[in-house]
Protein 1
Amino acid sequence: MLTPLIHTARESLRYRGSGHVLWLLHRITGLGVVVFLGTHIFGMSMATFNPSLHEAMLAVYKTPLFSVGEIVLAACLIFHAVNGTRIAILELRPSLWQKQEVATRWSIIITLILLAPTVIIMAYKSISYYLAHGLK
């Protein structure tokens, strides 16, 4: 029953060049975003169905580890969006597949350009919060 899944996971980890790395990262970041959305929907629904659990989850959200997780989530979202746009453009214009290396390079550059201020702002706000309220 799990054999196809195990085979897919094993084959996914076999290195096949930079395009394969982007393919794998795109899948992993997409999975990370889906896990976040599921967790977020569950957590917010607990405000109605189990307020004490909701309060406990909010307390977890205010921890330094969760702040790091938010920065990782932002990185996943940015990379997934930029790489997804690259894929969509290449799919809409098949003649551009010949320039995939250039498109990949631009995808990475745009991701880094968008990610740098995002990480700086998020880290600054988290550090400021923990300095003001004490590390919990």
Note: The helical segments are 3-12, 18-49, 51-61, 64-92, 100-133.
Protein 2
Amino acid sequence: MRSPAVNYLYVLVSSRVFLAGFFSWFLAQLLKMVIDYLRGRTRGSRDMVSVFVWKTGGMPSSHSSLVTGLATAIGFRHGVNSTLFIMALFYGGLIIRDALGVRRSSGLQAQALNRLGLELSRRMDLSFSPVKEVSGHTLPEVTVGIVLGFFIATGFSLL
């Protein structure tokens, strides 16, 4: 006999909504790792694991894939007129907008600041520590993530 905690965990991970969200994220990150490898951006297994676990930005958007997969699975499970679906839809829109707009803009600004800081440090012999350059997403990366999440969730929902 399983403990109540194990039963709750089993119910969670066997939920089609959970599986749709998880596999939408997982496959997007896996594709991102493969694409980076094929483009020569990763050199070994350590780089590939780092891309899989930590990389933001790139093709496809795992943010967009995850939230689209969740919203789609919730729509199938609870109906598109349910409060839960509406919340997931707006939450997903916010995440996608952030991945496409705010994070991309801040990443571009960080790149410009780093170029300026390095140039000033070179010219004036100053110490400069670059700021972190967070990668946002382009429209094609977000679009592929949305399509991927939708079809994965549809597949899990129609099983």
Note: The chain has a mean pLDDT of 87.
Protein 3
Amino acid sequence: MTEIIGWASSLILLATIIAQVRKQWKTESNEGVSKLLFAGQIVASIGFILYSVLTGDIVFIVTNSMLLISNVTGVWIYLRNAGRV
């Protein structure tokens, strides 16, 4: 049961981040998105990945790795929308 709660929560969290990145991609707009949002999330994801590896928690290793990929993509889209890429 514990694993199910962990994986379900991870899917919900990933869905919300992916929805934000997708919205930025489709609208080609950064309106309402903080410049520091993805940068802060990238740093936090790296920290959580390290923590998760050290504690051996596979749910958090996978979740935070996927969040890191989503956040790096979000930064790329943010920069593209701002005309910097």
Note: The chain has one domain: 2-81.
